[in-house]
Structures are given as C-alpha cells and as structure tokens.
Design a protein that fits this description.
By secondary structure, the chain is mostly helical. The chain folds into two domains: 10-100; 107-204, no CATH class. It has twelve helices and two strands, in the order ααααααααββαααα. It has a two-stranded antiparallel ribbon. The longest helix has 19 residues, at 10-28. The chain starts with 9 loop residues before the first helix and ends in an 11-residue tail after the last helix.
C-alpha cells in the first residue's frame, strides 16, 4: 500500500492503474486463446491488483474511482471480446459474462465478508470490540425466535469521518437483508449476499453514486 500524508490514496491508485496497464499485455497476447484461458489469466495477474486493499483505496476521489472502474471494465471487455457479439456488449453483460462485480460492489462484498468474520465468526477480537451491537429478535417461518445482530451507528461530525471503518462498517452491516445477517456459515453468507448483489447490479452501474450508499 502507498500511503501519503494527506490520505487521499492518489499515489496508491496511480500505482494500481500503472500495474494493471502493464499487465494488460498478457491478455492482448492471448489473441488465439479462448475466453476461459483469458479469464484465468485475468484472475491470476490482473484481478488481484484491484482486490488488494480495496477497503481502503476506494475512499479516493470520485475522479480516481471513475478511472479505476473504467480500467476494470476495459479489462473485462478484453477477456470476453470474442465471446459476445459487439452489438450485444453492455455494461451488464461485461460483468455477468465473467461473474464479477464492478468495483463498487466488489468493495461492498469483500467488506461484508470481513464484517461477517468480525461479528459472527469473531476471528478478529481486537476489531470486534470497537463495534457496539444490539440483539434484535426476529421469527422464522416456524415462529422460532432468531437473533440478528444490529450495529449502532456512531455519530460523526464531518463527511471525512464517515470513512472510519466503525462508521461505514456499521452502515454496511445494517444494510444487509436480515435473513442473510442471521446466517452462521461463511459460505452460505457469501453465496446469499452474492445472489442479493446480483439483483442490484443494474442499479450499481449508474455513473453517479455515493460509495457509502450501500445497495
């Protein structure tokens, strides 16, 4: 991670963009390969650059986020270039063909999984203690009470303060549907949340959005 004294992530984002652009030759050289091979190359050599530290660098400026989204979409288009007719290529088809999310939802998904590990599996006790939880009793189809965790959202005095993980983490967790929050298996949670986010994909493809306006 490249951290500057202003914490605006511009240096790190520039580094990510540079690394990805240098790695694009791997896909361009695979002109004779099929989509499956290019997909494997994408997942091995390009996708990790976007994933590493996404919970931090996504708080860069809107301009830099737009550049990242554009570059990510370009990479996906290269992967599927001969698998979809040009006139059929839309933003939705680009992501659905590769079974990936735009970076906005990738940030949301990976952060939700991290929160599940903290709150439900309690794998990171030092962070868990910073979240204040309340138990809210719900009932399933058999009228059996089921406890679901609801987080208290701390008060903040500025927009910058909303970048604090204790704030936006609580907002994100509370935005997850209650039936998904009640799951106790990481695999079940991830699969259910991925299915939920897929239903929100068209809405997430809008150009103008607030990063913390979780879907």
């Amino acid at each position: 991670m490249h951290i500057d004294n202003k914490l605006n992530w511009s240096i790190h984002v520039s580094h990510v963009i540079s690394r990805v652009q240098k790695s694009l030759y791997i896909l361009h050289r695979s002109t004779s390969s099929n989509m499956q091979r290019r997909r494997l190359l994408f997942q091995a050599y390009i996708y990790p650059h976007f994933l590493y530290g996404i919970q931090l660098y996504m708080f860069c400026s809107n301009t830099l986020r737009a550049k990242l989204e554009s570059l990510f979409r370009r990479c996906c288009r290269i992967v599927i270039r001969d698998a979809v007719y040009p006139h059929q290529v839309t933003r939705l088809s680009v992501y659905s063909s590769l079974n990936v999310f735009p970076l906005r939802l990738t940030f949301q998904l990976t952060s939700a999984i991290l929160l599940f590990r903290i709150l439900i599996l309690k794998q990171i006790p030092s962070v868990h203690s910073h979240f204040h939880t309340t138990e809210q009793t719900m009932y399933n189809a058999r009228r059996v009470p089921v406890d679901a965790i609801v987080l208290r959202i701390p008060r903040v005095s500025s927009e910058r303060a909303k970048h604090n993980f204790m704030y936006w983490g609580a907002v994100l967790w509370n935005s997850i549907p209650m039936d998904i929050r009640r799951l106790t298996s990481l695999i079940a949670f991830k699969n259910s949340y991925v299915f939920y986010l897929n239903s929100k994909l068209p809405e997430a493809l809008e150009d103008n959005y607030d990063l913390l306006n979780f879907l």
